[in-house]
Structure formats: structure tokens, C-alpha cells
């Protein structure tokens, strides 16, 4: 059998008796054709067994259907789950994703952005904290941030303050003797600082004994373990015999804390309660399910891609109406009570 011939625009034009210009409009601006003519061309594509040449289409209209994504790391389960949910939006929006891991190296991330721009991405989603929103806003394309400083670019974030307040209030209702918050150094302009503020405000409001541990945790299991293990020893020494309610800044670290305690005692000790933040899969899959503040990761991912697509589509118009100010969407968190605060009663 001879090699099967690729179907061209000329073939489709000849079959439908339309011009090649009309066929091109069907692919690049279908709304410019009547529904009847769209249907005629669509039927012809099926009859002719047309296989779209993506590269040719990109060269023709400059639209790559690529979105760039920069994440800080994939050690934290929150980022890996967020990336999973972002990628799953392909079925809805039809955009493909080019992903880079920044690892907090500013020049590396700038190189990644240059690489993404060379691939003619149409928009960018940034979860990394390294490059300022001011610098990102100067790129010649739409940018949406997730849970990072966002003064100059659009964003989708959790209501972190509400989440921090909810987590602390749950521990307070369990009448802990000491409330403890464990977090990494966090700039006040980063949305997740609200977790610290929510913890502080509730403790002050209810006049509860509390302490905050701010430590640089790193981005690997080994670096985090070296920080949390001494913290456990410090808490054992300073709060011996006290019921300790611990609100830790994310589920990855909450799971590591839980593992350290179980290794030390052979069980989850009665004088500890733990609540994390994220509702990434590790909180449900831990050896003892971890109470957490659910960020509705699927909703955040969907809203971030949706917001970016809106901005990309607007720029494609002949007379785009680009907002003067960034758009910021806030997603309400959900308290999920599980065994690390509720004993054998799991509400997650």
C-alpha cells in the first residue's frame, strides 16, 4: 500500500467548495463563519480523515496553546497535588503545560522563564516565591499567582487567615494547655502569613498560653527532619506533662512530626494534638489521618487556569479590554477533623 497522503487545507477547500481562506478561518476564528458552514467543514474533516498539524497551525497563527508553570518544589505534597489538579484542566480548557521547578534560585527561574517565552507560551502560572510580582508583571503575557506575593499580578489564594483561625480554634476547644504554631519564615506580603496571624489573634483573643516556632525547614525530607526532631525534644522539655495542641503550617511537615512522635512512643501520644494545612493527599493517607485545613486545591487550580484563560482570550481580541488592576480571588478553606485531634472519631 502506498503512503497515505496528508489532507491539506487545499483538499478541504476543494471538497467543500470553500476558499482556503474560509477553511483557515474555521480553524483560527470559527465564530466568523455561520453555524451551517462550520458544520459543512466539520463533516468534511471527518470524511477526509483530517489529522491536524499542530506545528503548522502554530506557525500560522502564533497560538501555541501552551501555559508555563513554575513550582518551588515537589517535596511538599501541596505543590505536587496542585500541579496534578492544574494538569487535569486540559480536558476543560485545552491548554498544555510546560513545567519547571524553581528551587528558590532566582537566576535559574529567570532562565526558565526565558525558555518558556521562547516556546511562545500564552500565559504563566507561578507558585514559586522567588521572583517579585513586579518583575513578573513586566512580562508581555498574562500571569496568575497561587499562594505567593501578588501585588502586581492576578492571583488565586486561600483565605489563610480564616484557616489559621479555624485550626487554632479547634485546638482551643480541646482545652489544650499550650497551643503551638510551627512555620517557616514568612513575609507579611505572602498570603500564607495569614496562618500565623490567625493563630496569634485567636490566642490573644482567648488569652491562651501559646508559642510560635519559626524555623527554616528547607525543601527536602532530610532538611525538615533535622529541624523538627529538635523541636520535638524542645517541646518535650519545656511542656512536659502538658496537653500540647500543635498547628503546623502544612501537611507534609505535619506528617513528618506525626512519624517522629510515633517512632518515639510506638503510638500517637495522648498529650499531643496535631492539625496541618492543605488537605493534600498525605493528610488522608498518613498512618493516622491528620486533621487539616483544606485549601480546596482542585478549586484553586481550576480558578487559576480559568482566570488565566480569560486574560489570554482577552488579549487575543482586536481591541482587548485589559483591567488596570490585578484580579485576586479568595477561596474559603474547610476544616477537616481527623484522628490527630479527634482520637478514633474521624470526620475527614
Task: Estimate the mean pLDDT confidence.
Answer: 91
* Low-confidence residue ranges: none
Radius of gyration: 25 Å
Strand order, biggest sheet? 2-1-3-4-5-11
Distance between the termini: 60 Å
Order of helices and strands: HHHHEHHEHEHEEHEHEHEHEHEHEEH
Structural class: alpha/beta
The helix content, as a percent range, equals 40-55%
Strand content: 15-25%
* Number of E strands: 12
Number of helices: 15
Can you describe this structure?
This protein has helices at residues 9-16, 20-28, 35-48, 54-61, 77-87, 90-93, 106-118, 133-137, 160-173, 193-205, 221-238, 251-265, 281-285, 297-315, 339-342; strands at residues 66-71, 96-101, 123-126, 143-146, 154-158, 178-183, 210-214, 244-248, 272-278, 291-294, 328-331, 334-336. The chain is α/β, with parallel strands linked by helices and 348 residues long. The protein is elongated and about 85 Å long.
Question: What are the main properties of this structure?
Answer:
348 residues, 15 helices, alpha/beta, 46% helix
What is this structure, in a nutshell?
This protein is an alpha/beta fold. The protein has 15 helices and 12 strands.
Secondary structure layout:
Layout: H1 9-16, H2 20-28, H3 35-48, H4 54-61, E1 66-71, H5 77-87, H6 90-93, E2 96-101, H7 106-118, E3 123-126, H8 133-137, E4 143-146, E5 154-158, H9 160-173, E6 178-183, H10 193-205, E7 210-214, H11 221-238, E8 244-248, H12 251-265, E9 272-278, H13 281-285, E10 291-294, H14 297-315, E11 328-331, E12 334-336, H15 339-342
Parallel strand pairs: 1-2, 1-3, 3-4, 4-5, 5-11, 6-7, 6-8, 8-9, 9-10
Antiparallel strand pairs: 10-12
Helix pairs in contact: 1-2, 5-14, 9-10, 11-12
